[in-house]
């Protein structure tokens, strides 16, 4: 029966689009959008609707919504359970909201929101932790000793993004290139290496 989601993306230059996805749980959708944002920042890609479309096309899997359509004002009548809204700026900042409609209800209650890439990465980490815990419990119930590895890797990715974003100067930067231009990478090697363990830097 699915768990349908409507996602609105607002990019600079008043370009917005609405996307529909049959399975739109935040456990996947928020981390997947965090991955899109991190890839766009890391590779210096355009913060644009076309950039998003190329990214999801390149994935060739239904990780993020690709089906565009009109805004569904009475989204609940269409069975939409999850409602996401992302606003990007030219310099790669992002704000977002996620609202959920209880089964049978006609209203959406806010569940999650943020005003920066860091907030999105943190939200992704939180949802992935919850997903991993759910999967782990299920595995234990079935007496299984494996099957959690992919979820562990997902968590490491989420932590990596968060660690990247907390380096001084990253949050204000449009892209990785812009960030590295801000310090003496070329003469001394990158002065701010990325590490998953902040203590290892001291
Ligand atoms: Zn650098």
From TrEMBL:
Designated name of the protein: Uncharacterized protein
Lineage: Bacteria, Bacillati, Actinomycetota, Actinomycetes, Glycomycetales
């Amino acid at each position: 029966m699915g768990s349908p989601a409507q996602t609105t993306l607002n990019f600079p230059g008043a370009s917005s689009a609405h996307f529909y996805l049959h399975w739109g749980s935040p456990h996947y959708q928020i981390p997947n959008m965090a991955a899109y944002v991190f890839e766009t920042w890391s590779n210096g890609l355009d913060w644009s609707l076309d950039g998003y479309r190329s990214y999801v096309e390149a994935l060739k899997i239904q990780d993020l919504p690709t089906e565009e359509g009109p805004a569904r004002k009475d989204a609940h009548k269409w069975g939409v359970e999850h409602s996401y809204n992302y606003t990007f700026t030219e310099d790669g900042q992002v704000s977002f909201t996620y609202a959920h409609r209880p089964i049978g209800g006609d209203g959406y209650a806010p569940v999650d929101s943020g005003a920066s890439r860091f907030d999105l990465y943190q939200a992704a980490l939180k949802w992935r932790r919850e997903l991993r815990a759910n999967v782990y419990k299920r595995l234990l119930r079935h007496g299984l000793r494996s099957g959690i590895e992919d979820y562990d890797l997902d968590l490491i990715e989420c932590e990596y993004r968060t660690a990247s974003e907390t380096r001084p100067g990253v949050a204000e930067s449009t892209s990785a290139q812009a960030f590295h231009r801000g310090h003496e990478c070329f003469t001394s090697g990158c002065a701010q290496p990325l590490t998953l363990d902040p203590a290892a830097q001291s």
